[in-house]
Write a structure and sequence with these properties.
The chain is α+β, with helices and mostly antiparallel strands and 259 residues long. It folds into two domains: 75 residues, no CATH class; 159 residues, no CATH class. The chain is built from four helices and 14 strands.
């Protein structure tokens, strides 16, 4: 008799516990969670399964109007999965409960260069236009990018203070063996660009970019191009650099194969 009652009682208690957990206000949960010092959340509403965040600051950069929805089926594979959409785009985030590793999948976001200005304070020449990021997958281990695959499209490329529009350009990145490989091309733009690059996990890098321009190209564009590129032949420029990233920068950006 006791055995017949015990099993359904345990099932009922388990279901009740799960129901209570998923319906606890996320604001109450966050009071007991130590967020990274560089992350600040404002106006968090909803439950752990779905809700809304008015704005999140990550390293003082704002991410606004965030909606999140959990995929509870991921728990069967010991993952916590969320579908995220916000003011500038969307992504899927997967957190592995066993390894504490994070994966960002199907990232598709759009920013104007004006919105990204706080991240480019150190640049002597300020870009303008729009940036579209499309990444199939980004794996993050110990807060470092361990793998990345996707592309960035710079639309209506230009420079603040200048009236010209250089068109659209595409930058692709993928990890191959022990290095990241890059490809830069134009999308039928003013500057004919064909470039490649490589960044090894030890910080060694190589950049090789060829630029072709029309003979009647605006002189102001030629002047800007000459600041970074070396002229080679008629209406052709080359950017070729190789070297080693500073050790502190390599440690921040790159994850060795030891992990």
């Amino acid at each position: 008799m006791m055995k017949a009652i015990w099993k359904p009682t345990l099932f009922f208690v388990s279901c009740l516990a799960i129901f209570l957990i998923i319906n606890v206000p996320v604001g109450l949960i966050l009071k007991h969670v130590n967020l990274p010092k560089n992350v600040i959340l404002y106006a968090v509403k909803g439950q752990i399964t779905s809700g809304h965040i008015a704005v999140a600051y990550v390293n003082d950069f704002p991410v606004r109007d965030i909606n999140y929805t959990a995929d509870l089926s991921c728990l069967l594979t010991l993952h916590i999965c969320y579908q995220i959409s916000y003011q500038n785009g969307k992504a899927n985030i997967l957190f592995n409960l066993l390894t504490n590793n994070t994966a960002v999948e199907k990232l598709d976001v759009n920013y104007s260069m004006v919105e990204l200005a706080p991240l480019m304070d150190q640049l002597l020449v300020k870009p303008k236009g729009e940036l579209n990021l499309k990444f199939n997958q980004i794996n993050i281990i110990q807060n470092k990018v361990a793998n990345i695959n996707g592309l960035a499209i710079w639309r209506n490329a230009g420079v603040v203070g200048e009236g010209f529009n250089l068109g659209d350009y595409q930058f692709e990145v993928d990890r191959v063996d022990n290095s990241y490989r890059f490809k830069l091309i134009d999308r039928q733009a003013v500057l004919g660009i064909d470039g490649t690059g490589r960044l090894k996990l030890n910080g060694e890098y190589l950049i090789d970019i060829r630029v072709k321009v029309a003979s009647d190209l605006d002189n102001s564009i030629k002047s800007l191009l000459s600041l970074t590129a070396k002229k080679k032949g008629l209406n052709e420029y080359v950017i070729y650099k190789q070297g080693q990233l500073p050790p502190h920068l390599s440690r921040q950006l790159l994850l060795s194969n030891d992990f």
